[in-house]
Amino acid sequence: MSQGHYSKDDLADRLRACGINPTRQRIEIAHALFSRGEHLSADQLLAIVNDRHSETSKATVYNTLNLFADHGLIRQLSVDGSRAWFDSNVGPHFHFHDLSSGALIDVPVPDVEFARLPVPPPGTEVAGIDLVIRLRKKL
Amino acid sequence: MSQGHYSKDDLADRLRACGINPTRQRIEIAHALFSRGEHLSADQLLAIVNDRHSETSKATVYNTLNLFADHGLIRQLSVDGSRAWFDSNVGPHFHFHDLSSGALIDVPVPDVEFARLPVPPPGTEVAGIDLVIRLRKKL
DNA sequence: TTCCTTGCAAAACTTTTGCATTAAA
DNA sequence: TTTAATGCAAAAGTTTTGCAAGGAA
Fold it and tell me: Measured between CB atoms, does A134 come within 8 Å of chain B?
C-alpha cells in the first residue's frame, strides 16, 4: 500500500489524502517516519528532523505526531511505560519486545492465529487487538 | 492461590515469602492492592492508603510498587501512555481495555487460545505475552 | 550502633498548552 | 488580510532520586 514513495510530493499527497495540510515540518516528520521502517519516539524524530534540515520545535513534533495519529496515518504504541513509540505501519500486525535491548520488532499477521477470543462485554465491540510478545535472552 | 487472606499477618507472610521486609506502609499498600481485585494507579494507591490510615508519602508508594513488581508480587501494565497500572494478579491472563471509560477488565486464560504464534528470533525466548483487546461502544 | 525504611523536596523526563510570531493562501 | 501552523517557554503530569530523619534489630 503506497510503499516506497518518499519524495516530498508523494508525501504531500499522502498527507492531503488524510485531510492534513502538508507543511514543510509535517513532510519532514512524515519522511522520517515512513522512509525508515522503524518505531520511533518523539525525541528520536526531533533529532532526526533537526539533523537533516532546518529547525523544527519539540512542540511541533508532538503536535504533528498526535495529528498524524488522529488521522490514522501512524499508530501510537504503549509498550513500556517510559515513552510513546510511533509506528508508521498502521496495518494490522503485532510486536516482539526485546526486554534486554528495548527493541521493537514487527510480527506479521499471518504469524499469529487465534483459535479463540473472548466475547466483548455487552454494548461494546472490539476496536483493535494489541499483542506484545516479550523476549528475553535464551541461556 | 492464597486468595482472601488480607489480614496484616497474612499479608506480612506473603511479603516475607517474596523476600520483602513487611513494614507498615508496605502492608497497607499490599492490602489496598490485594483486597480489591482492581487495577490501580500509583495515585489511586496513594489516595486509598492515606484515606484509611496514617500518612504514606508518594515516594514510598512508588518505591513500594517497584519493589513489589521486582519481586513478582504484582505486575506493571503499559496499557495507555498516560500512567502505569498495577495488577495484583500476576498469573497469566489478558485484558480488555474500554477506550471510552478507560476501564481495564481481566480476560482469563481459557478465553484465549492461540492456534499459531511466531517463532522468537534466534538467541531469544518468550518471556511473556501481553494481549490487550481494545473496546469501543457498539452503536 | 548499624541497617533499612520513610518522607520531603527537588529533579528528571515526557507531553501539553498559551501565546506571540511566522508563513501561507 | 485572514487563517493556520510554528516556536518558544512555561506548565502539567508522572516517576525517580538525594538526603536527612526515623525506626527496628
Answer: yes
